[in-house]
Structures are given as structure tokens and as C-alpha cells.
């Protein structure tokens, strides 16, 4: 962690500590399985994991649209899941009393509702 407690605080992902030896750090199922069970159950349900499994190689197969191997068709389920995860993490930080301006000013309802709109308004 760099600049601990400051607004420009950053975190470093230590692949050797977080993931099994020889695993692919871009595989979403590997990242999911490396989370503590309590974090998994807070952030995801069974249908979320199915989305992760379907899209497990998305980072390496579709990073740049100009690459020949990039997907030409996309399903927005993974984008909706990412929006939900952001909301859950921000909410968790708020409940723990985080004073970071990004967290305090983040509009969870706006992001969540923009990705998960009700059928009837």
C-alpha cells in the first residue's frame, strides 16, 4: 500500500500472495476462488458466479476491439455485475465509516438503478 490514509492511496496486487502458483491472474474464476468465502458470499450469488464462469477469459479475449481475437458480440451481464459489485463495495466502505470523498460522494442508487432498472416506474 502506498500513501496510506491519503486521498491518493493506492494498493498493489501481489499475485504471489493472492493466487495459487501458476494460476492466470486474468481468469475471473481464479480471482473469485481466491477471495475469502465471506467476501464471496457478500459480493456474489450463484447466478453471479455463472456470469463469471461464462466470462472468465473476457479480459484476455476482448481487451481491445482492434485485436483479431476480440469478441465481436458482447453480453452486458458482466457489465451489470461489475456495477453491482462497485455498489456493494462502496456500501461496505460507507458502513465501516470510510471518509474518502470518492466513497462518501458516490451515488450508489444512480449507478445501481442505471444498470438494474425496474420494469414499472
Topology, please?
Elements: H1 15-18, H2 28-33, H3 37-43, H4 46-54, H5 58-61, H6 77-95, H7 101-105, H8 108-115
Helix pairs in contact: 6-8
How many strand units?
Answer: 0
Amount of beta strand: under 5%
Portion of residues within helices: 40-55%
Overall average residue pLDDT? 84
Low-confidence stretches: none
Spatial shape: globular
Largest sheet: none
Beginning-to-end CA distance, first to last residue: 44 Å
Radius of gyration, CA atoms, in whole angstroms: 17 Å
Order of helices and strands: HHHHHHHH
Give me the number of helical elements: 8
Task: Give the class from helix and strand content and strand pairing.
Answer: mainly alpha
Give me a quick take on this structure.
The protein contains 8 helices and no strands. With 121 residues, the chain is mainly α.
Give structural notes.
This protein has 121 residues and is mostly helical. The chain has helices spanning 15-18, 28-33, 37-43, 46-54, 58-61, 77-95, 101-105, 108-115. The chain is globular and about 45 Å long. It starts with 14 loop residues before the first helix and ends in a 6-residue tail after the last helix.
Keywords:
121 residues; single chain; mainly alpha
Amino acid at each position: 500500500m502506498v500513501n496510506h490514509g491519503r486521498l491518493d492511496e493506492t494498493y498493489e496486487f501481489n499475485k504471489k500472495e493472492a493466487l495459487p502458483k501458476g494460476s492466470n491472474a486474468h481468469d475471473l474464476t481464479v480471482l473469485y476462488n481466491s477471495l475469502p468465502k465471506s467476501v464471496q458470499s457478500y459480493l456474489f450469488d450463484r447466478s453471479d458466479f455463472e456470469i463469471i464462469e461464462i466470462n472468465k477469459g473476457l479480459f484476455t479475449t476482448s481487451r481491445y476491439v482492434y485485436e483479431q481475437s476480440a469478441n465481436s458480440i458482447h453480453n452486458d451481464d458482466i457489465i451489470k455485475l461489475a456495477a453491482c459489485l462497485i455498489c456493494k463495495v462502496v456500501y461496505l466502505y460507507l458502513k465501516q465509516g470510510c471518509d474518502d470523498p470518492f466513497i462518501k460522494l458516490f451515488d450508489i442508487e444512480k449507478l445501481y438503478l442505471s444498470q438494474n432498472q425496474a420494469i414499472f416506474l
